[in-house]
Specification:
The complex is a heterodimer. By secondary structure, chain A is mostly helical. Chain A is built from three helices and no strands. Chain A has a single domain (4-101), classed as Helix Hairpins (Orthogonal Bundle). In chain A, helix 1 (4-22) packs antiparallel against helix 2 (26-48) and helix 2 (26-48) runs antiparallel to helix 3. The longest helix of chain A is centred in the last third of the chain and has 32 residues, at 70-101. The relative contact order of chain A is 0.14. Chain B is globular, with a radius of gyration of 23 Å. Chain B has a two-stranded antiparallel sheet. The N and C termini of chain B lie far apart (49 Å). Chain B has helices spanning 2-5, 8-22, 29-56, 82-105, 112-129, 133-151, 158-189, 194-201, 207-224, 231-239, 242-272, 276-299, 304-324, 328-359, 375-388, 395-409, 415-439, 469-487, 491-502, 505-514, 531-552, 563-576, 581-605; strands at 59-62, 77-80. The longest helix of chain B has 32 residues, at 158-189. Chain B is an all-alpha fold. The chains are: A mainly alpha, B mainly alpha. At the A-B interface, helix 1, helix 2 and helix 3 of A face helix 6, helix 7, helix 10 and helix 23 of B.
């Protein structure tokens, strides 16, 4: 099993977080958050991958044929659904920030502190 | 029979939320109120019934009938033990009081508010009842999504928008960290059912297991507002509508710690058995820091909701200390503390909401002497403040005494100092606010925040007529309940049995995977608390009152040399709480990294 997918997952996680920390624009920031999330997709799929395995559809397949793990694929789909909700909600908040206060910059949207 | 009830705490509110949201345009406000109150009361009843039944034998419900075969669980289950069902009951009680409170309080909301609250309730119940790790994550996300929307409900202002964005972004990062941990654990064990993971792990403490646990723990600590993952909490609480604050502080934050405790006790106790001391030392120090930072920031606030929010952070530190002892007896103390704290904190938030309702501000200095005529409300405030200080016989005292007792037995006799400091700072701040706002004590000061003050737009049309009973009623009832729970005979036995059940990993695995029936342990004999813990509770309350009096006196404003380092420390802390989401996520990441480095080092050292 190659280590490459795990390295990519770690890279996406770190670079996404870097984007979230340094972002000056909420839409950009939310996209960076989606990149962090992509790392979890890669990680989940990499964990369930089997070299030489077929897709986990078992109609007409001989018993004992190696297949990739369907559970992680289900997890990943759930993850996509859940996070799509959160991303949509966050983008809606960003739209409100632009509409009402004419800014998408986290530095400008500052009222709470201390 | 009771088994068939198991999915209802989730199904009923979700269905009701769907109907209310779908018929949003046609539902009159009062009808939505009545439906929501009935639904949350029904969920409360069912959860209490489940808790009762689970005390005899934990309840298992396999969705779609996918029961485990030869120890392999493919289906998703609700594995209901008394702690989980108790938390579900507590959540529905608080949702019920929030709905009663918002009957009069919230005039401008449509029925979407009710739908969101019901989704929030369903997610909290599912989170408490589930026996599956990934399912736990899904409920966590559903709970969070509903919470973000509720937090930013008054979206037309800068504050709520900023608070909701900070809350949503930091918590989403936390959720990804949890998910990464779950993925790693699944890759290692091939299981998602908590019992099956526990059995697969046994006492395997390979580095990958430790890494997975650090990820899961740190991710849930974001929700539990443990330093340095806590920054979102004060921002979210300062701006969320009052009924929502009740749920945030009263139960949602505690559920973050519950998840860590659940994962630890069902899966990680075996792997950590040789390294308990390392985990205990790490979590005890983190809990102490959390309690101290929360307490100091709490005392430094003048925005009352923000003050209460920092007090919640401080108390989360105390609950973490209870968990960190890794003893069932301490866990029982935490359970009692969660209930006592949730009840009094909700009462305090409701009083803050009443002040906002009457005077359109929750700034302590602006409210100076304004509320002299609200005698009942003032009484509830002080009464709840006493509960916050852990005065016997409030439920908070019972929890605190149990944790201190367990600490003493585990060779950590010093934990009472942290409880004392936290109680003095947080309850002192509450008493100070009470004296200023309801009695007008202390000199009148200009609000120092000036233009930077958080705009507190009223959530209602401010009314000068009396406070309607729907507003102070829930506060009085909740605060009285905190006392009632404390004096109920046998409540410690119930908590002790529940905690022992939760901490019994082998029994849990046998029940879930092998359909075994584990007899109930006889309720342990209740020993009387030593006089010293009663004395400590009284002393803490006295010191809190003294601190409040001192802070209102003219001595407080003089520049004594001893105050200098404290003031420097607090202003430093205030600068770290910058309100900038990028800073929050950076500190959160550093926190995860620090956990990942310090825990293995402590384990290597064999501490």
């Amino acid at each position: 099993m190659s280590l490459l997918p795990f390295a990519i997952a770690a890279w996406l996680f770190i670079i996404g977080l870097y984007g979230v920390v340094t972002s000056k624009n909420f839409v950009h920031l939310i996209m960076c958050l989606v990149i962090v999330q992509s790392s979890t997709y890669v990680l989940l799929l990499a964990i369930g991958y089997k070299v030489g395995g077929v897709a986990p559809v078992f109609a007409g397949v001989k018993v004992g044929t190696p297949a990739v793990d369907p559970v992680v694929q289900a997890l990943m789909l759930t993850d996509i659904v859940v996070e799509a909700t959160v991303a949509a909600l966050l983008l809606a908040l960003a739209v409100q920030a632009q509409k009402r206060f004419r800014t998408l910059n986290p530095d400008k949207l500052q009222e709470l502190r201390g | 029979m009771t088994t068939q009830l198991a999915p209802l705490p989730v199904v009923i509110p979700l269905a009701a939320a769907g109907i209310l949201a779908g018929l949003n345009k046609f539902t009159p406000r009062r009808l939505a109120d009545i439906v929501s109150i009935l639904v949350s009361a029904a969920v409360l009843g069912i959860s209490l019934d489940l808790m009762n039944a689970a005390a005899r034998q934990p309840i298992l419900y396999w969705f779609g009938g996918w029961t485990p075969r030869s120890g392999v669980a493919l289906g998703i289950s609700f594995a209901i033990d008394p702690v989980g069902a108790g938390l579900a009951s507590f959540a529905s009680l608080l949702v019920l009081s929030a709905f009663v409170f918002s009957w009069r309080y919230f005039e401008s909301v449509g029925t979407l508010f009710h739908a969101l609250m019901l989704v929030f309730l369903a997610a909290m119940c599912g989170f408490s009842l589930t026996g599956d790790l990934f399912n736990l994550f899904v409920w966590f996300e559903l709970m969070s999504a509903a919470a973000y929307a509720l937090c930013g409900y008054k979206i037309e202002e800068v504050g709520p928008l900023q608070g909701a964005l900070n809350f949503a972004i930091t918590n989403t990062v936390g959720a990804f960290i949890v998910l990464t941990g779950i993925a790693v654990l699944y890759g290692h064990t091939g299981a998602l059912n908590l019992a099956q993971i526990g059995r697969a792990l046994g006492s395997d403490s390979s580095p990958i297991v430790i890494v997975a646990f650090v990820f899961i723990m740190a991710g849930f600590f974001v929700k539990a507002a443990i330093v340095p993952f806590h920054f979102w909490l004060a921002d979210a609480h300062a701006v969320a509508p009052t009924p929502v604050c009740i749920l945030f502080s009263g139960v949602m934050v505690e559920l973050g710690l519950y998840a860590v405790a659940r994962v630890y006790w069902s899966d990680m106790d075996g792997p950590f058995a040789p390294h308990r001391m390392a985990l205990t030392s790490l979590l005890l120090s983190v809990g102490t820091i959390t309690a101290a930072v929360g307490g100091m920031m709490c005392f430094a606030q003048q925005h009352i909701k923000r003050l209460l929010a920092y007090s919640t952070i401080s108390h989360m530190g105390l609950m973490l200390i209870g968990f960190a002892l890794l003893k069932p007896a301490a866990l029982a103390g935490v359970a009692l503390y969660v209930i006592g704290h949730g009840l009094v904190k909700s009462a305090l938030f409701i009083v803050a909401g009443i002040l906002l309702h009457r005077y359109a501000t929750v700034d302590e200095l602006r409210l100076h002497g304004h509320a002299r005529r609200l005698h009942v409300t003032a009484g509830v405030w002080v009464f709840a403040g006493l509960g916050l200080a852990g005065l016997p016989p409030f439920a908070t005292f019972l929890g605190e005494a149990a944790i201190e007792d367990a600490g003493e037995k585990a060779g950590q006799g010093w934990v009472w100092v942290v409880f004392l400091v936290s109680a003095v700072l947080t309850a002192g701040a509450v008493f100070r606010v009470g004296a200023r706002v309801f009695r007008g004590w202390g000199t009148r000061q200009k609000s120092a925040r000036g233009s930077k003050e958080i705009a507190d737009k009223p959530e209602t049309t401010p009314s000068r007529r009396g406070v309607p009973p729907q507003l102070f009623g829930p506060a009085a009832v909740l605060a009285a309940l905190a006392l009632a729970v404390g004096v109920t005979p046998g409540v410690r036995g119930v908590a002790q049995t529940a905690a022992t059940r939760m901490a019994d990993a082998a029994g849990y695995q046998a029940i879930v995977l092998d359909h075994a029936s584990i007899p109930v342990n006889p309720p342990p004999v209740e020993h009387v608390f030593p006089m010293s813990s009663v004395l400590r509770g009284v002393v803490a309350t006295g010191l809190a009152l003294a601190l409040a009096a001192l802070s209102l006196s003219r001595y407080w404003r003089r520049e004594y040399i001893v105050f200098k380092p404290v003031r420097g420390l607090i202003s430093g802390l205030q600068q770290v709480h910058s309100g900038h989401v990028g800073d929050y996520v950076a500190l959160l990441t550093l926190g995860v990294a620090a956990f990942g480095i310090v825990l293995p080092v402590l384990m290597k050292l064999g501490l």
